[in-house]
Amino acid sequence: MRAMQLTAPGTLELRTVPIPELGPDDLLLRVGAAGICHSDSFVLGLPYPMGDRPLTLGHEIAGTIETVGTAVADRVVGERGIVYLCWSCGVCRECLGGNENVCLAAGRTAMPPCPGLGPDGGMAEYVRIPARSFVPIGDLDFAAAAPLADAALTPMHAIRGAMDQLRPGGTAVAIGIGGLGHVAVQLLKALTETTVLAVDVDPDKLALATACGADHTLLAGEGAAAAILDRTDGRGAEAVFDFVGSGAAAELAVPAGAPHRADRKGGHAG
Ligand SMILES: [Zn+2]
Ligand SMILES: [Zn+2]
Predict the structure, then answer these.
(1) 133 band by pLDDT with thresholds 50, 70 and 90
(2) With pLDDT > 70 as the criterion, what percentage of the chain qualifies?
(3) Ligand number, closest to the Cα atom of 40
(4) Which of 27, 48, 117, 250 is the most buried (most CB within 10 A)?
(5) How far is the CA of 52 from the centre of ligand 1 (A)?
(6) CA–CA separation, 171 vs 235, rounded Å?
(7) Cα torsion 119, 123, 124, 126: sign
(8) 112 Cα–ligand 2 center, Å
């Protein structure tokens, strides 16, 4: 099969490799779509090798079950789905608490394996995945669904952590309407009754935020924090989600948040 592999620091190659072999608890997916994440360009730019073998990139994966492992023979060949990217154990203290991104199986400070960043990922014709990482998507378009595995998972994780602050009548601010932020706006509108205020340096991104359901938009820059305070009767927003991670975004997030609540931020769930 063909696979897009990182073969040396900064070098991507389309190579022909064997179709992966399955363990008893695995599924073989025929890849329908694989997203490109900022982490992929980060990995490509690393000055050192990711491991001792070529690595197939791609951790936003959608596809169809092609073959099933012997212990998961009840899974349905032909079913369509996306791949949950924390290949965690599912049984440790953190996994059982819903924090699979800090699964303890790989060690206290190690991240659980993530396809395309350790095990081979989805920029290939086929990918081997643990059966418990398969999430059915019904008839959703593969290309539209693949980024849900990461670009939607990340803001979902951040929003879930702030749900107790996101009550009706409150205000949620999303800073940065890019790959994560434009999904965050939609999630906030779907999951909460808060007023959603989108902030970006680019007017086109603010137009996207409006199309995604944002109640208000605000151009980032001097005076943005004061404008947020103004729109919240001087109270500050109940939750501020930073999807940029720059110093300027943090400097806006802190004064724009209600007291003791400005520490709610987005973060990479993987
Ligand atoms: Zn990613
Ligand atoms: Zn675990």
Answers:
(1) very high
(2) 96
(3) 1
(4) 27
(5) 22
(6) 10
(7) positive
(8) 8
Ligand at shortest distance from the CA of 179 = 1
Average pLDDT over residues 233-246: 91
150 Cα to the center of ligand 1, angstroms:
6
Kindly tell me the burial class for residue 67, based on how many C-beta atoms sit within 10 Å of its own C-beta (0-12, 13-18, 19 or more).
middle
For helices 203-211 and 181-191, angle between their N-to-C axes, nearest 10 degrees: 30
Ligand with an atom nearest the CA of residue 89? 2
What are the φ and ψ backbone dihedral angles of 59, each rounded to 5 degrees?
Answer: -120, 10
Per the structure block, which two tokens stand in for 235? 């109270």
Say what the pTM is: 0.83
pLDDT bucket at 267, cuts 50 / 70 / 90 = very low
Least confident of 107-116, 128-137, 211-220: 107-116
Other Cβ atoms less than 10 A from the Cβ of 29: the count is 28
d(CA 57, CA 247): 29
User: Which pLDDT value is given to residue 260?
Assistant: 56
Cα-to-centroid distance, 240 and ligand 1 (Å): 21
Which residues neighbour ligand 2 (ion) by CB within 5 Å? 88-89, 92, 95, 103, 105
Pick the more confident residue, 237 or 264: 237
